[in-house]
Amino acid sequence: MCDELIHPGMVEDPRLSRRSFGVLTVAAAAVASTAYAQTDVVEKDVEVKTPDGNCDAVLYHPQAQGTAPAVLIWTDIMGLRPAFRDMGRRLAAQGYVVLVPNPFYRSARAPVIGPSFNFNDPEQRNRLFGYRAAMKDDGIDRDATAFLAYLDAQPQTNRNRKAGVQGYCMGGALSFRTAAAVPSRIAAVGSVHGGNGLVTKDADSPHLLIPKTDATFLVCQAQNDDKMEPKVKDELKAAFEAAHRPATVEVYHANHGWCVPGGQVYNMAEAERAWTALGGLYKSTLA
User: Fold this and answer.
1) Is 2 a member of any domain?
2) Res 31: pLDDT
3) pTM of the model as a whole
4) Residue 81 to residue 181: CA distance in whole angstroms
C-alpha cells in the first residue's frame, strides 16, 4: 500500500537533485559519505532496451574476477534514487550482479523526486501515482523479462545459477510478477513492506500468480499494513501452501517504508533484520 495513510510526511536525501544526480552517483562507489559505499563493487549507469523503450538503470557487480548470481531490485513508489543505489551497491558487495532499473522510464528519467518529497502533498503524490498507472501488467512482465535477459547477458553473471528479485513497497507486487513472468530463472523472491496490495480481490492480484512461480518467497510485512488488513498474511500463507511454494511471511516491528533510508519511518534495526533475512534467502536458493 502506497497512500498518504501509510507514507507519513517527508522523504529526504540531500544528495538528490536532477542536476547533480548523474555526477554524484557516478562517483558514489568511491565516496565514503554514501551510506554503503563499497570500493570492491563496480557501478555503471546503463540503458536497458525493453519492448516499450529504453530504461535507465544502474548495474553493479563485484570487482573481483569470476561470475556471480543475478538479482533484480524493484524500487518503491519514489523510484530510483541514491538510497536505492546504496542498496544495490550493498547487495553487490555480498557477491551478486545487481540491476536497479527506473520503473517509471515510460514517464520520466530518474530521479522522479527531488531532495525532499512530501507524500502528504496531493500534487506530488498524484504525480507518482500517474507514473505507476502507466505500468500495466503486461508491460511489467515485458520489463521483467528484459531486465533478466540484460542481467544474463553480462559477463559477470553466472547463468548456471538461478536469479533473485526483491522489491519494496509497490516493488513487492512487481517481484511476484517477475517470478511468474520468468519462472525458469527466478528462484528467490523478497517483498519488503510490499503492503496489502499483494492480496486483492482483483483478477490480477499478485498472490494469484504464486502457482506460476518456481521460487522461495520471503514476505516482510509492515506492522501498520498488518493492522489495517490482518487477514492478508494468512491469505498469503494459504496461497503459498496451496501452491506448494516454500515461504516465510512475517510482520516486522516497523511501519510501511521502514527499510529505505531517508523516510520518517526508517528503522535501522528492522531494516538490518530484513537484510539478514534476504541474505539467508539468497544463500539457500541461489547457490
Assistant:
1) no
2) 40
3) 0.92
4) 26
Which region holds residue 187: left if phi is over 0, alpha if psi is between -120 and 50, else beta?
Answer: alpha
pLDDT digits (tens, 9 = 90+) for 205-249: 999 999 999 999 999 999 999 999 999 999 999 999 999 999 999
Cell of residue 287, nine digits: 547457490
C-alpha cell at 151: 542481467
- Cis peptide leading into residue 111 (ω within 30°): yes
Query: Residue 37: inside a domain, yes or no?
Result: yes
Report the alpha-carbon distance of residue 94 to residue 19 in Å, rounded: 31
CA of residue 282 relative to chain centroid, distance:
15
| 1 within some domain | no
98 Cβ contact partners less than 8 Å away, ≥ 6 residues apart: 59, 60, 61, 70, 71, 72, 73, 88, 89, 91, 92
Q: Which residues are within 8 A (CB) of 149 and not within 5 positions of it... i.e. 6 or more apart?
A: none
Is the model's pLDDT at 15 over the cut of 60? Answer: yes
- Answer yes or no: is 3 within a domain: no
Asked whether the beta carbons of 8 and 125 are under 8 A apart, the reply is no
- CATH number of the domain where residue 106 is located: 3.40.50.1820
Number of domains in the chain: 1
Residue 142: closest CA among 56, 77, 49 = 49
- Phi-psi category of residue 262: left, alpha or beta, with phi > 0 → left and psi -120 to 50 → alpha: left
CA angle 70, 195, 185 (to 5 degrees): 20
* Alpha helix ranges (H) inside the chain: 21-27, 82-93, 122-133, 137-152, 170-181, 223-228, 232-243, 268-285
Residues 6+ apart with CB under 8 A from 236: 198, 199, 207, 219, 247, 249
